[in-house]
Structure formats: C-alpha cells, structure tokens
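Researcher: Final request for today, and then I'll write up notes for the group meeting. The sequence and the SMILES for zinc ion follow.
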Amino acid sequence: MSQSDNPYVLVERVRPVPLEDLDALFWKGLTEERLVIQRCPACAAFQWGPECVCYRCGSFDLRWTEVPRGADGRHRGVVYSWERVWHPVDPSLVESVPYVVVLVELPDTGGVRVLGNIVEPPDGPIPIGAELMAVFEHHDTYSLLQWRLRTGAAPIGCRSTTAHRS
Ligand SMILES: [Zn+2]
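Model: Predicted protein-zinc ion complex:
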C-alpha cells in the first residue's frame, strides 16, 4: 500500500475548519491579526476553547472579544509549558522538525491558555514564564496564531535556567 492509499496517513498539512456556530470568529480574527476569544457578559470571564456555555457561571450568552494588547499594541503571552518535537508524527511535518509546541497563558484574561508554536526558537531550554508576542502566520485561506520569544525579556515567576555563582 502506498502512503497516499492509506487513509490514516496525511499527505498534506491539516487545515483548520472553522465551525460557523462555534469558533468562526476566532479564525476570522486571526486573519485580521486580532486574537479574539469568548467572554461572558454576565461574569466577565474569558474562556478558551470555544463552548456554548460559560465555564464559570453557566450563562449561554457568550460574546467574542479581543484579548487585551500590551503597551506596544501587540498581543502578549507567557510560557506556561513547552515541548520540542523531534519525531514527525505525520509525514507532512518531516521538514518542520524539530519544532517547539508551547502552552501560552494570556495576561489579563484570568489565566486563559492557548496552544501554538514558537517561531525561530532558541536551541536550548525555554524558561517557564518567559514573555512572548503573538505572530500571525498567514496561509492561503486561513491564518494561525504563533508566538515569538521577546528578546531581552526577563522570565516572570520562574526559576532561572542559567547557572549562578555562589
Ligand atoms: Zn459567565
């Protein structure tokens, strides 16, 4: 059986398929370089991933709102966790490894976290708590939310990964 005959092996990258009644506004926001997630007018909680009901208060009246931007006008994030992927889990990713998957906490949202990749990551460890800025990766019919480490930014609330003299 050739690779293309196998229905369980992807031969091209998976494309996001927005769901009109659920997350279409998130994907539309990315094409406009805006990070938009759900927020509940009743209790003011942000939430992600998209749902029909507020996680906090149970309201069904959720709205979509842009995540607050930093002083420089960019969407910001903080490294909550990360992993460097060495093994391509799919043939379409062979030329992409190694890449870094990052779990990003969004400031000023009450702890909402989103997944993405770090573009142009350093070779070494990435400090937990390091500051990130959003990068919008545009493709032909969709855009992805990615992240870049802010150079010179001190880690926030984490142990240093560098050695210290005592
Ligand atoms: Zn609520």
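Model: Residues 154-166 have pLDDT under 50 and may be disordered. The longest strand covers residues 76-85.
Researcher: Thanks, that's everything.
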